[in-house]
Amino acid sequence: MVNILVQGWRGISHSYAMVNQYQLLALLQRPDVTLFHDDLPFFHPHWSAKTCAAGFDAERVRKIAAVPPPGGAAPDVTYRIAFPYRFYGAPAGRLFVFGTAEKRRVPADFVYQGDEAWKRYPVETVDIVTPSNWSKEGFLRYGFHERRVHVVPHGVDPAIFRPMPRDQRQGERRANGLPEDKFIFLNLGATTANKGLEILIRAFAAVNAKYPDTVLLLKDARALYGFSAEDDVHDAIEKFGLPPALWGAIGVIPDNLDLETMRRLYCMADAYVSPYSAEGFNLPPLEAAACGVPVLVTQGGATDDYVHPSFARPIAARHLSQGGEDWLEVDFDSLVAGMEEMAAGRAGCNPAVAVPWIAEHFSWAKAADKLLAVLTG
């Protein structure tokens, strides 16, 4: 039996909080683990479960919230998963800190500098948990030894993210006001520059001119970050002189959605497109693929750890470096060609292979097994 104290975020839809909550749910299934949880302050004080809830159903919410504080128990392991990264020591057991280095660099402001960072602790040695080999490089550059940086991938809960029969899918489109006879490209998440939304809008304009029965559906995360995908569309149309009529083929979903609604959103799409420049893992393409949706994703970055030809098609990209940071410059023509291939029905995704492959290799249960092996190794 191992006692694990998790210090992190619960209740909200930020990616770190989602990873923490999925990991908690998976570890709760392990009879050899006793879990405790301390809630760390949110990065932005305005974040709350009321405005940006994680979206789990009531039973999962209950299980996550029921993980108790440690009281007087001394943990065997302390595992921190929040931002900025708390590299300071721990009162007992081994210390692990989760983090992502999207541009393969850990800037100084990514590291917590609060009062407790200057205290002395019995445990001063820190190990890092990060979800991709791309991200691992950033912590090695920061100065952590190879043996202290552990890659533990994220996963998908196949009970939540699963395919939908085609007749049900068409009914969901009708119910949600989406066209039944259009080809829908989907992209969701924060509209920060690393997500590649600008080049996606440009590419979609070119694809839509050739295939006018295509639609681009964007789901932003404005409740968390305050950025609107509508602003990105407006800016791209003005910056690149795109036709204003493009608005008629682009839809934006601003609402915070529960996970079952997110699953329906994935399933209503015909393809998921992610022309990112830098990511720590990039979970949405994997969730989309688990729903039987073909994926178009940047080649050469964090997603190389999990992409599989049964569901993913690569977007060519050039590796760039400057000032100790690395990123990928997406090839515009490759992105357009990939989107046109999908719109023409040549994606070649085989859900009969992809869905069970993801469940076998990239479920949260599998991810929790790897995490536990690291924490107790």
Provide an overview of this structure:
By secondary structure, the chain is α/β, with parallel strands linked by helices. It has 2 domains: 2-155 and 362-376, Rossmann fold; 166-359, Glycogen Phosphorylase B (Rossmann fold, 3-Layer(aba) Sandwich). Helices cover 33% and strands 19% of the residues. It contains 12 helices and 14 strands. The strands form 3 sheets. The chain has a 6-stranded parallel beta sheet with strand order 2-1-3-4-5-6, sandwiched between helices. It has a 6-stranded parallel beta sheet with strand order 9-8-7-10-11-12, with helices on both faces. A hairpin with a 2-residue loop joins strand 13 and strand 14 (325-330). It is globular. The two termini are 13 Å apart. The mean pLDDT is 95.
Any chance you could write out the topology, listing elements then pairs?
Elements: E1 2-8, H1 15-27, E2 33-39, H2 58-65, E3 77-81, E4 94-98, E5 126-130, H3 133-142, E6 149-151, H4 166-175, E7 183-188, H5 197-210, E8 214-219, H6 222-225, H7 229-240, E9 250-253, H8 259-268, E10 271-274, H9 284-290, E11 295-298, E12 312-315, E13 317-322, E14 325-330, H10 332-343, H11 351-361, H12 364-376
